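INTERNAL AUDIT FORM
Audit reference: QA-55
Scope: verify that the stored structure record matches its stored sequence.
Auditor: D.O.
Record contents follow.
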Amino acid sequence: MKTNSFKFLFLIAFLMTLLVGCDKKPKTATEKPSFLKDSITGEQYRPNFHFTPKTGWMNDPNGMVFYEGEYHLFYQFYPDDNVWGPMHWGHAVSKDIIRWEHLPIALYPDELGYIFSGSAVIDWENTSGFGTKKNSPMVAIFTYHSMEGEKAGTIDFQTQGIAYSIDKGRTWIKYQNNPVITNPGIKDFRDPKVFWYAKENKWIMSLAVKNHIAFYSSKDLKSWKLEGQFGADNGSHDGVWECPDLFPLIDQNGVEKWVLLVSINPGGPQGGSATQYFIGDFDGNTFTTSEKEIKWLDYGADNYAGITFSDIPENDGRRLFMGWLSNWQYAREVPTYSWRSAMTIPRELTLQETENGYIVNSIPVEELQSILSKGIIEKNNEFEVLAATYLLEIDKITSEAFSINLANRLNEVLKISVIEDKLFVDRKLAGIGSFNDVFPAIHEVPLNGIRIHKIEVFVDKASIEIFINNGERVITELVFPNEPYKSISISGDAELVTIYPIDSISEN
């Protein structure tokens, strides 16, 4: 009897070990990890109005969805270091898309792999059977990345999995029959973005497959069928395609077109990572376009892997976007220590028909008005500002050549200039840049005949985001000044220059 009891207890202990091992949650630490020991270094660059993790590493935004009054932001997260590692899904929520509340980690790695990028949807009709129509489940669709498979030299180490929540995203259950899409023998097979295609009552998934996008359909989020492919002969192919997002937009004349976002790394306009887009049509199976020109959503160096929110209410109707405010060329080396990376400010994407065809504009969301202090109108071309973070708005510009210098007492200066149909951002002397050879650079942005009449520059502690003519051109750049830029000089003619100090949203 004693022997049988011992075997039974051993079996129970063994099974418990397996169950605990399915989700690799962190063990209780007796000592802070080395990257947390000096929690002050780098805090001078903690943004005032951009989302950051409290500690640890963050990259792609994932699973952005709106449900019952809350914006959900999931993100690629490694809590145990300030560089990339085993990927989890971090989680935060917001009532206004500006001020964020950190929540516990949503998804942990398990025996199928790390939790790579993906999306989340509200299954309103309970097609998955994970909830009820009265309590619609939130379903996350993500890529499993098996490091064991990659290290073994296989090429089928990326598959697609799903998980669901029936308590507004606070706790998650992984589907017992994962993966829902196995790998067909392709190394780069990731980043599912899913939406409900009401015209045919089915779910559509856009999936990045090395150098193109594959489209899958499903009736229940569990069984998927390959429908069509796009992109092998379109757009930029100087790097691997990632993080697709397909959605409709309506232009100023009421015409609907479909937009496909595709991130690429490397191959961006400033080197490294960036996001291109295509405008065309979608027939329920695949996307097509007649356009040949390569179009970039952001011409700066530091906006990557961005996607849009799912399930924005119809009475709102906006297409809301956030991206990762960094670049894979130097993301692991930037001079912050207890944490790394931020998200861009949220932006509304709109479709505009121009003389040269359609473009997607990126506009700062109207909710940002809530953190702007009263505007201060400046009468001189050179002036000081009291705030460390602010919006500089220059309107009714009449000069074809124009320049803006943002400087501090240490003679560090960020230069923005417009010369002969090009815009330049010079961060060579803007602050710390020695951590990577390519970081201190002059970035050139083609204007292609755009006549600038308005410039908005959002200045945070370690970034600038420039919006030209309500988003016709956007430039997002990291900067690391040793002191805030409080001296501003403007060369050129403009009727109105206004400074709006920006309040801090940071919980930290």
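Auditor finding: record pair retrieved intact. Residues 1-22 have pLDDT under 50 and may be disordered.
Action required: none
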